[in-house]
Design brief:
Layout (H helix, E strand, L loop, with lengths): L1 H29 L6 H13 L10 E6 L1 H6 L9 H13 L5 E5 L17 H17 L4 E6 L1 E3 L5 E3 L14 E6 L13 E2 L5 E2 L2 H9 L3 H5 L7 E2 L11 E3 H6 L5 H4 L3 E6 L14 E4 L2 E4 H14 L2 E4 L2 H21 L3 H26 L1 E2 L3 H33 L1
Parallel strand pairs: 1-10, 1-11, 2-3, 2-11, 3-6, 14-15
Antiparallel strand pairs: 4-5, 7-8, 9-14, 12-13
């Protein structure tokens, strides 16, 4: 009888160690995957809502090119070319004195990177010329952040891609910088810098915008190599600061209060199939719901400037918490036989994990994602229960055989 108990203790200890190791490995890997991303977004949103105070949008406004502009004014459906349209929009913005203008468009060239600029069609060159002239003129008074095309070469390394502005070198009188527009898989994380094959460092669009407004804003909140988590504003929080491009161009002075001395991010929000039909051209799921890309960049920019950023909990601390949770569950199943008591104790484990995440988020501005460790706890609990049921079934079978 003693040997059976000892054998059970040995195999139980082996299972416990395996679950700890597997749980830690999966937790580490899953933190870099987008698994259960919607649930993880909800957890992040709930923690944000628990923050004291009421943060608000301070430094940014967003101008969107929507269905009315895209499907009714721009060619081939309207009479205006895209370069001329954005040039006119820049002129209208310039009249109401923004601090920084950010252009959030994918201007990847329609011709291969190896081709020369002369291979572009005359209409495209005309549009590029109109846009270039407007950028040079407006940048004499204020900073402009242009999108930088980033690609990967055959070795998987980042390189500068070709865009419709080609290799145009703007005059020294302007304040023109570039930032890449690609967004991360995990929208909670602020995109940072990318080192390209030549060794050059390229900022993200939001990082370039924040630097253009406050040069040391990025250094204050990006002290580590790992991308921090950004505090998010919802579309409702941007009410009054999201402006239709057509409305602004028709009456710029009506939007002076929202635009003047602020960072203005210009992006697209038209539907892809027809006016009001199909998905929006540049929209993504975020912790606060689906947002246009320009609004996501605005969130990142606000996070830089307002220091609403959260680093990950230290790696050793996350491992310690996950190990403790799994060991506690093991002890619950080893020491407690009654179902109701087990459930109440498991619920306590969940509460403790959530409280740890809350305390770290509120008091230390560090984010601990409890979802993956709790899933490991659930998996361990289910596995131990199944093992216990099978063991009890074998014992009943032996008792019946012995009685016969």
């Amino acid at each position: 009888m003693q040997s059976r108990s000892g054998g059970r203790s040995f195999w139980y200890s082996v299972r416990l160690v395996l679950f700890v190791v597997i749980g830690l490995v999966l937790g580490e890997r899953a933190s870099h995957w987008d698994v259960w991303i919607d649930a993880r977004y909800r957890i992040f949103r709930l923690l944000q809502q628990a923050l004291p105070g009421s943060p608000y949008v301070r430094e940014t406004a967003v101008v969107l090119i929507g269905d009315d502009e895209y499907w009714r004014e721009l060619r081939p459906y309207g009479t205006r070319g895209w370069g001329t349209f954005i040039a006119d929009l820049l002129t209208a913005l310039d009249a109401i004195n923004p601090a920084v203008i950010v252009l959030d468009f994918d201007w990847r060239s329609p011709v291969p990177s190896s081709a020369t600029s002369s291979t572009q069609s005359p209409p495209l060159n005309n549009e590029v010329g109109a846009l270039t002239a407007a950028i040079e003129h407006v940048s004499r008074q204020r900073s402009i952040v242009l999108p930088q095309t980033i690609e990967r070469d055959e070795d998987g390394q980042y390189i500068l891609g070709r865009d419709v502005l080609g290799q145009i070198v703007f005059g020294d009188t302007g304040h023109i910088v570039r930032g890449y527009i690609a967004l991360p898989k995990d929208m909670r994380r602020i995109p940072g810098q990318i080192r390209i094959r030549s060794g050059e460092i390229v900022d993200s669009l939001a990082m370039a915008a924040a630097r253009a407004r406050t040069p040391n804003a990025v250094d204050r909140v990006f002290p580590t190599r790992e991308a921090p988590f950004a505090g998010y504003f919802s579309r409702r929080d941007f009410d009054g600061r999201v402006i239709a491009a057509g409305d602004l161009m028709r009456n710029p002075s009506a939007y002076r209060q929202q635009i003047a001395f602020n960072i203005v991010i210009v992006g697209g929000a038209w539907h892809t199939r027809a006016h009001g039909q199909g998905p929006t051209v540049d929209a993504y799921d975020t912790p606060v719901g689906r947002l246009d890309g320009a609004l996501i960049h605005a969130n990142y920019t606000e996070a830089f400037l307002d220091r609403r950023v959260y680093s990950s909990v230290r790696h050793w601390a996350a491992i310690l918490v996950e190990t403790v949770l799994i060991v506690v569950v093991a002890l619950i199943f080893a020491l407690q036989r009654r179902w109701m008591v087990r459930l109440s104790q498991l619920a306590s484990v969940f509460v403790i994990a959530c409280l740890f995440a809350y305390v770290m988020f509120i008091n230390f501005h560090q984010f601990f994602d409890p979802l993956i460790p709790l899933l490991a706890v659930v998996a361990h609990a289910v596995f131990e229960q199944v093992v216990e049921w099978r063991s009890e079934a074998r014992h009943r079978q032996r008792d019946r055989s012995a009685s016969c």
